[in-house]
Amino acid sequence: MKNLVQIKWMLLFVVFTASAQQEKGIIGASNWLNNWTEFKPQNAEYNETNQILYGKITTNTTLFKKNTYLLQGPVYVTNNAILTIEPGTVIKGDYETNGALIITKGAQIMANGLETDPIIFTSNRPQRKAGDWGGIAILGDAPMNKFGGASSLNFDLDPSQTIYGGTNSASNSGVVRFLRIEFAGKKIKGFKDYNAFSLASVGNKTVIENVMCSFAAGNSFEILGGDLTVSKLVSLRASGDDFEFTQGTQCRIDNSLAIRHSLYSSSTRSRCMKIASYEKKEEADLSKNQTNVVAINCTLVNTTQTLSDDIAKGLVKEAVYVGNNSSFSIKRSVVSGFYPAAILSNEIKLEASTFKKIKFEEVYFNNCKGNIFVENTTTNEDLEDYYGMGAFYNLYQNTDNKEMFLDLYNAKNNPDFRIKISKITASNSK
């Protein structure tokens, strides 16, 4: 308590440069979700497969829009090959053989879709469901923080083909732009669940923009180590985390959207964002960079229309979890409909060094039953008092999602998750 009071008074001397009326959440002159996203993928129709991909791709290869491809089992792009995928190409993951696409260390993917012609990865089942197939993984040679500087994905894969990690922060694994991943994240007994999209030790020359993961049974996006900037990512109704960052990743995530619903979260804890430096502390080299995530203009929203009932039933969890030895900054963002908004690990000490590493600034906390707590505590007056200071320009309101967002429940499958500027007021009441 004493530390928080001292830090608070020090901040009163800071010059206020932010504006409470600044745009928060995802931004754009127009709705950038238009044309390339799909919010009802179970109803989408795709052609039957006429080409099969299997085993290893060892030479430069192009997938063409005129074909529809089947990933039969795990498919590895290896031997420094480049896999190019034309805009509009559809690739289906096989349910029976746990289809997946692995871009191995040194190889590249050039999946440069178009807003009007996105690349689509989906399930091959007639009735598509979360977890039908594996997912996509890109493995690079940027740094990570496990001892030895390298690791391997613990999925149901060939360990020799899934090694990642190195020393090249500026490595280039290719381009992924205007791409959808639907119904991935297969659960396989004895192995870690697949993620829809795994980025492991990916370097900062890699381009990751406009990617949508829908109905993942595991995490939508998992970023393990590496050094990268990602933007305009969309996670729709994942069972696991929407965005998980770990193993010392240095990541900036910009203008991105996590859409949850109380009934689609797994029975274990799942969040919009999980920031952790390790799964097992004994495996982490604490002399190396620990996880550092900067989130700018992000929207984290629970779209349930029965929020109070769902909270009473224990179906609503926190939006953000920050683990020990990690840094996290979220700014000009929206967190709406969670219980609470954020939880800090109970290993984190509330002292000056912590508040330099964990920042909530210009955040719009809406309809969150409690805002920021330390794990396993029921009172949070100190944190509320600290992050509620005017210096941070955080806002606290209870506005219905229908009123706050431009067009959340669009009947024509074209929702608009931008905030109505008129709904953002200079209030800091909690």
How would you describe the overall organization of this protein?
The protein has 430 residues and is mainly beta. The chain has one domain. It is built from five helices and 32 strands. The strands form three sheets. It has a 28-stranded parallel sheet that branches. β31 (405-407) and β32 (416-419) form a beta hairpin. The longest helix has 10 residues, at 2-11. Mean pLDDT is 90; it is low at 8-21.
Set down the secondary structure blueprint.
Layout: H1 2-11, E1 51-57, E2 61-63, E3 68-77, E4 82-85, E5 90-93, E6 100-103, E7 108-112, E8 119-123, E9 136-139, E10 151-152, E11 163-164, E12 174-182, E13 197-200, E14 207-214, E15 221-224, E16 227-236, E17 243-246, E18 250-254, E19 257-260, E20 273-275, E21 292-296, E22 299-302, H2 307-312, E23 320-322, E24 327-331, E25 334-336, E26 342-344, H3 352-357, E27 358-361, E28 364-366, E29 372-374, H4 381-387, E30 395-397, H5 401-404, E31 405-407, E32 416-419
Parallel strand pairs: 1-3, 2-4, 3-5, 3-6, 4-7, 5-8, 6-9, 7-12, 8-12, 9-13, 12-14, 13-15, 14-16, 15-17, 16-18, 16-19, 17-20, 18-21, 19-22, 20-23, 21-24, 22-25, 23-26, 24-27, 25-28, 26-29, 28-30
Antiparallel strand pairs: 10-11, 31-32
